[in-house]
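Because discrete structure vocabularies remain unfamiliar, we turn briefly to a single example record, giving the amino acid sequence and backbone structure tokens:
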Amino acid sequence: MPIINHVGIAVNTLAQAIPLFEAILGQEISGTEEVEGERVRVAFFGEGPGRVELLEATDPTSPIARFIAKRGTGLHHLCLSVPDLDQAVARACGEGAELIEPGIRVGAGGHRVAFLHPATAGGVLLELSEDAAA
């Protein structure tokens, strides 16, 4: 059964957003990472399922930069943990979900991930993350 892995929130800058989220959550960030393939810098709050990820674009043509330009900052995606990404993607696509190119890739933390287009996934950008413990 899938579980919520994390919630991704698009922000203008981590430097501005981190202090607010530290105050709200009553904790410091648990880590940061740059995901070059997605052209994004990520700040994490918490460990394991249910964490919050703040996403800052590192390139003006990145998906996060385009999202902010079109919709402003805010909730970007919901990530679900799945035990077998290949099977989950095949089942979702078999039901009409559209996989966002380049398809299955390596995301934050070195996990295999894939994104499903919101127009075919109930209006929500869904990230599926392979997690053998899911």
About this structure: The mean pLDDT is 94. The first strand starts at residue 3 and ends at 10.
